[in-house]
């Protein structure tokens, strides 16, 4: 009875947010027209309606009403739903017999930006996103890049206890993936694939964010646009949807500042392996023109460079992400 009541309430929430008269219990939220901003709104309504602590990024794993109500029931009963670290988000279940791909979060800390990419890669490939610590209640940011890498490796091992590992990350996420690969090699673990998606290297940090004061000023001045970038919302969204995020701006500011500062302070050591670098074709005044050049001297076995359409942000959004996914499939294919 209680489960049915939760299910009916969830149907009402979905119908209202998605503007649909009927919603099936096993239909995917994102297939029905849901997107990242609506996911944030849904997360807030779930917390209010069910009075539970609901990490909004869990919607990426529990995309149907049936799975979501089951998750909420277990949470309300004090159970620990699912397995693994709360930092690891399942983006594509895939075939558990296959070696997974781990995508490390960009500077904003969320993994919503990887939705489109995960959907366009091999459906049988397990894909996990690793979010930042500090986004949910009671969490503190991890600190420097080395500490983040250690923490994230512990989280990754809850899904894949031993190597070989496949690591990738966009921008800041690529820098963290690089340090994770370093630590794995030091522990005599095998790194099969290391992919950096337009990640700035040493001496190439974005213009206008060289100090804590500049980072905070930049974030506050650009907050609405940053939210669009961090969540890759669709064009033409109502401003009300974007404004619903602004009460959480202090949370994002803290994570954004911590991550940006950590990236500025990081001094990468030479990496004994090979890395793959994806370079966005369109460049802007903020990001370096040739970020791959900073990594070439560091990768002892070389850097494989691929140029993809779009800019630093839109390379992960439609329509450009399709070409990125195609080329990334090619990188992963020989190692399947």
**Lateral strand order in the biggest sheet:** 1-3-2-4-5-6-7
State the major sheet: 7 strands, mixed
Spatial gap, N to C terminus: 46 Å
Q: Judging from the principal axes of the Cα atoms, what is the shape?
A: globular
What Rg is obtained from the alpha carbons, in whole angstroms? 20 Å
Spans where pLDDT lies below 50 across 5 or more residues? 231-247
- Which strand-content bin applies to the residues? 5-15%
Order of helices and strands: HHHEEHEHEHEHHHEEH
**Range of helix content:** 25-40%
**How many beta-strand elements?**
7
Q: Helical element count?
A: 10
Q: Which structural class fits the helix and strand makeup?
A: alpha/beta
Q: What is the average of the pLDDT values? A: 82
Give the oligomeric state of the chains in this entry, treating copies of one chain as homo and distinct chains as hetero: single chain
